[in-house]
Amino acid sequence: MAFTPELKLLVVAFDEAAIWLFSPRELADREVLQEVVKQNGTALRFVHPTRRDRALVLKAVKQNGLALEFVSFQDEAIVLEAVKQNGLALCFAEDYVELFPDVVLEAVKQNGLALEFAWIGWQRDRETVLQAVMQNGLALEFASNDLQRDREVALQAVKQNGLALQFLWVYDREIVLEAVKQNGQALAFASREFRGDRQVVLQAVRQNRDALEFALRELQADAFASP
C-alpha cells in the first residue's frame, strides 16, 4: 500500500518513529518537518540536530512538552511553551532556565508534581508550593520541610488529594477531616488519636467504606460505620 503524505502524518501522530515513512528528500523539506512535529512533537528526536531550528523546536514542544528532552539550545520562551503543555517537561529544562519564576509557576500549575524537578529554592517558595499542591496535593512530598509544616499549605494539599496527609509532619483534626472527606483511605496515614475519633472515622467510611480497616478496632464494629 502506498502511503500518501497525509497518511504518513496520521501514522506519525501515533508513533514518532513513523517519521521514517518519509523519504530523505521529503525530510529535507522544512515544511514537511514542521508538519511532522505538529503531529507528534517527540518525533523531534529523529531530526538531525542541525535541522532543529528554533521555529521547529517551538512547534514540537507546543505539541508535546516532553520534546524538550531533544532540545539542545533552550531559552525561557521555549521552556515556557513546553511546561505549559506538560509541566513534567521541567525535568528536561536546563538548570539556569529553572531560575525563571514564570517557568516554574507554569509547570506546577499544569502538573503539581513538576515541583519534584524544580530548583530547591522553588521548593522552599510558598507561592510556588501552594500552586503545586492546589493542582496535585501529592506534590507536597517535594516541598521543603518548613512548608510541609505550613498549615495553609497542608490544608490545600489534603483538600486536593487526601492522601497528601502522609507527607505532613504535623496536622490537626480539621486537616484530617478534610483529608478523609476527599479520600477515605487517607485514614491510614492519620495518627492513632484520629483513627479512634468517631467523627473522623465516620467521614472516612462515608467516602470509602474500605477505610474502616484503618479505624481502631473498638470502632470497627460500630453500627454507625454500616452503609
The counted number of beta strands is 0
Please state the structural category.
mainly alpha
Oligomer: single chain
Q: What's the main sheet like?
A: none
Radius of gyration: 24 Å
| Basic shape | elongated
SSE series: HHHHHHHHHHHHHH
Please report the distance between the alpha carbons of the first and last residues.
60 Å
Instruction: List the uncertain runs.
Output: none
* Chain-averaged pLDDT: 91
Describe the protein.
By secondary structure, the protein is mainly alpha-helical. Helix content is 48%, strand content 0%. The chain contains 14 helices and no strands. Helix 11 runs parallel beside helix 13. The longest helix has 10 residues. It is elongated, with a radius of gyration of 24 Å.
SSE layout and pairings?
Layout: H1 5-14, H2 24-27, H3 30-39, H4 54-63, H5 76-85, H6 101-110, H7 120-123, H8 126-135, H9 145-148, H10 151-160, H11 173-182, H12 192-195, H13 198-207, H14 217-220
Helix pairs in contact: 3-4, 4-5, 5-6, 6-8, 8-10, 10-11, 11-13
